[in-house]
Write a structure and sequence with these properties.
Elements: E1 2-4, H1 15-22, H2 28-32, H3 48-65, E2 69-75, H4 79-95, E3 99-105, H5 115-127, E4 132-136, H6 143-153, E5 157-161, E6 174-177, H7 191-206, H8 215-224, H9 232-243, H10 248-257, H11 266-272, H12 274-283, H13 286-297, E7 303-304, E8 311-312, H14 314-347, E9 355-359, H15 368-379, E10 383-389, E11 394-400, H16 409-414, E12 419-425, E13 428-433, H17 435-451, E14 460-462, E15 464-466, H18 473-480, E16 495-502, E17 507-508, E18 515-519, E19 522-526, H19 531-536, E20 541-556, E21 559-576, H20 585-590
Parallel strand pairs: 1-14, 2-3, 2-4, 4-5, 5-6, 9-10, 15-16, 19-21
Antiparallel strand pairs: 7-8, 10-11, 11-13, 12-13, 16-20, 17-18, 18-19, 20-21
Helix pairs in contact: 3-7, 4-7, 4-8, 4-13, 5-6, 7-8, 8-9, 8-11, 10-14, 12-14, 13-14
Length: 591
């Protein structure tokens, strides 16, 4: 079930050298100490000079003519999109008070210049002249919508994005995008990073020094969008941003969810903070989404907690809303997962290389990616959540890949030539597909996997195999010392170990399928308990397990607990367990 990436020994080999070498990282010092020299100048981004000139021409018009300049921002519905538009809005509001900003929000988790946003922009333009439309973290491939807004209604469009272009650079919008910039080698910079570069360019044009104050949100957006932290520039910007948290909302939610500003690292934010924010984006009320954006903008607003009747700041309010939305999301997920698993069992879907889940049209599409991610982790294979859309007469939905099976799932599916649309990241994207193409999809996937020699049992790459006696609290502490390093591209080390477990000692959470037990004073924990092990727990057994997972330390109420976080397991021999006091003593002597 696992494969050692390299021949290594936890006792004799340099721990960090092995891990970095296993990830193809040869420049250890550059990774450990990212420097300002790793940053790439904004002038290497195609169209950046033209973008600054466009902004300045429009801004200057208002300054000279003395009237209000109106700029519309479409707020993209994810953390990267929120932070992108938030730092842009805050910068403009602080330095250009004669510019009036108008914000348009998506109702759900849509992205870019959707058709309803085209209608909103055009209707607004009829009432009040719009001088500029800016779309951050989206919009590169929205060619038709750009045409309708720019060509038909003469509203200039500025796109600040990092997503791949379906058909190259648009002729209807000014696009600044690292994917379209040959002279910009860092393709692992998210939308908020591109906006930050734009603000740096504006700083130089106007003689300001304001852009750097937003580096904490630049870091957050890149982590939330799973940017590769082995990219020197991205790593530098992220670690610089995390050194100095300035945004009051980010401070508040870190305080509540992590509790220790000394432990603000990429993976602690990804695990403890970002999922709470995503709760609002996925299941939050419209007013909660506005509150979230305003909190990122740094808006000061005193409110009253409806339960405690005590006053609270906007950061406190939004932190509370994030936690509550996350709980609602978990409840909704558990309900849907039960229904989906019934479909998987009934139709034997788990036997396919990819899980294709069809849901009724009434399904809340904003939950599609969230559910797909949970199922991909449990079944260890890519998952496509499909919902019929009667308006376009196509299935649409969300894909979530599984890195242990395939790194570039989007590219793999595009190669099948069956999808009408695939947009987003390699292992997290949206799609559209016709009924006829869907009928051929499973067969096409299997054939392509066979041709690429990707069939068979998938093995998990691990860094070290541990003998039972080598798993100690000292080893856990040693791994934990390097906690600050882990992130996308520099994944935390994985360990494999063979142990025997008495299933009577395993505890299952009353509210979920989480299981845990102690071994060598270390808590073994699996957030979604292996279904085979759950079955064995119904009767007492001693089982031999091969376990793959990571080492960590949990801090709660002043207590630190060393943990082995289980990613996967294989179950070997098992024996029916009988309590000692039930055994006949004579039988023991005879034995």
């Amino acid at each position: 079930m696992y494969r050692l990436i390299s021949t290594s020994n936890i006792v004799t080999d340099d721990f960090l050298e092995v891990i970095l070498g296993n990830r193809g990282i040869s420049d250890k010092e550059r990774l450990l100490e990212p420097k300002a020299s790793d940053e790439i100048h904004y002038s290497n981004l195609q169209n950046m000079k033209e973008a600054v000139a466009l902004f300045k021409e429009i801004e200057n018009r208002g300054r000279v003519e003395g009237g209000k300049i109106r700029v519309v921002l479409i707020i993209d519905s994810d953390i990267d999109g929120n932070t992108s538009s938030a730092i842009l809005a805050s910068y403009i509001e602080n330095l250009f008070p004669h510019i009036e900003l108008i914000f348009l929000f998506h109702e759900g988790k849509q992205h870019g210049i959707t058709e309803d946003k085209v209608r909103e922009v055009i209707e607004l333009h009829k009432e009040i002249a719009i001088d500029l439309l800016i779309v951050a973290d989206a919009g590169t491939s929205d060619y038709k919508q750009q045409y309708l807004i720019c060509e038909k209604h003469e509203i200039p469009i500025l796109i600040l994005d990092h997503h791949e272009a379906e058909n190259g650079e648009s002729e209807f919008a000014l696009v600044v995008n690292n994917q379209l910039s040959d002279n910009y080698p860092n393709k692992a910079l998210s939308g908020v990073g591109i906006v930050y570069k734009f603000l740096q360019a504006l700083d130089d044009e106007y003689g300001y020094m304001e852009a750097e104050q937003y580096l904490d949100l630049v870091a957050l957006g890149n982590i939330a969008d799973s940017m590769d932290l082995t990219s020197p520039e991205t790593r530098y910007l992220v670690y610089e941003g995390l050194k100095d948290i300035r945004n009051e909302f980010l401070k508040e939610i870190i305080l509540k969810q992590i509790g220790d500003f000394k432990r603000v690292y990429p993976h602690t934010l990804a695990f403890g903070v970002i999922p709470k924010m995503n709760g609002i984006i996925r299941v939050g009320k419209p007013e909660e989404k506005v509150d979230l954006f305003n909190a990122f903008r740094g808006i000061e607003q005193a409110t009253v907690n409806p339960r405690s009747k005590k006053s609270e700041t906007l950061p406190q309010k939004v932190t509370r809303q994030c936690v509550n939305a996350y709980k609602r999301q978990k409840t909704m997920r558990e309900k849907w997962v039960v229904k989906i698993k019934e479909q998987i069992v009934e139709k034997n879907l788990h036997e396919n290389a990819f899980l294709l889940i069809e849901l009724e049209e009434s399904f809340d599409r904003d939950l599609g990616g969230y559910l797909a991610g949970a199922l991909a982790g449990e079944y260890r294979k890519p998952v496509l959540m499909l919902v019929w859309d009667s308006e376009i007469e196509r299935f649409s939905g969300s894909l979530r890949g599984y890195d242990g099976t395939m790194k570039n799932t989007k590219d793999f599916l595009e190669g099948l030539k069956l999808f009408d649309y695939l947009g987003g990241h390699q292992n997290a994207c949206g799609f559209k597909i016709s009924k006829d193409s869907l009928l051929s999809l499973n067969g096409a996937i299997n054939n392509a996997l066979e041709e690429q020699n990707l069939t068979g049992e998938q093995k998990i790459d691990v860094d070290f195999y541990l003998e039972d006696g080598q798993l100690t609290t000292e080893l856990v502490d040693k791994v934990y010392e390097h906690e600050y390093l882990w992130g996308k591209g520099v994944s935390k080390p994985l360990f494999a170990i063979d142990i025997e477990v008495d299933t009577n000692r395993i505890k299952k959470s009353s509210s979920s399928n989480m299981i845990e037990w102690y071994h060598n004073n270390i808590k073994f924990l699996q957030f979604t308990g292996d279904r085979r092990l759950l079955d064995l727990m119904e009767d007492g057994h001693i089982v031999k397990l091969t376990i793959v997972g990571s080492l960590s330390v949990n801090h709660f109420l002043g207590k630190s607990t060393p943990q082995f976080l289980i990613e996967d397991m294989a179950i070997g021999e098992k024996a029916k367990f009988t309590l000692f006091e039930e055994v006949n003593v004579d039988d023991l002597f005879n034995w």
